[in-house]
Amino acid sequence: MPNLVEVAVNAGNFQTLVKAVQAAGLEETLAGSGPLTVFAPTDEAFAKLPEGTVEGLLSDKEQLTKVLTYHVVSGKVTAADAQTLSSAKTVEGGELSIDTSDGVRVGGARVIQADIEADNGVIHVIDSVLLPG
């Protein structure tokens, strides 16, 4: 089974995310033993950011790393697990709120596809980029 990075590359709709992970030097971390849970914004989610935001992040490795690790939770959190949680601590150190009252929302972003398995964790596809507070 492919790792988290390989799953994202193979999916085809995470090109911006994969480019950002590579720019931040996080490929090895996300391909490591895990398990990790990744809330993965699609290319469309990145496109919704104000003009210049992605370029700005790609040129600021420290800020880019903060944003990317804010999308990652240690351990494997499935959609079923999320039903019992109100928040999850991110690798970045912040807390993501989890709201399951109307579908599943994480930090305000809607989960549009859940539980994509990888050999070192799980990916949940989200419709917005999460920005740490």
UniProtKB/TrEMBL annotation:
Residues 1-130 form the FAS1 domain. This is Beta-Ig-H3/fasciclin. It comes from the Bacteria. PANTHER family: FI19380P1, PERIOSTIN-RELATED. InterPro entries: Adhesion/Biosynth-related (IPR050904), FAS1_dom_sf (IPR036378), FAS1_domain (IPR000782). SMART domains: FAS1.
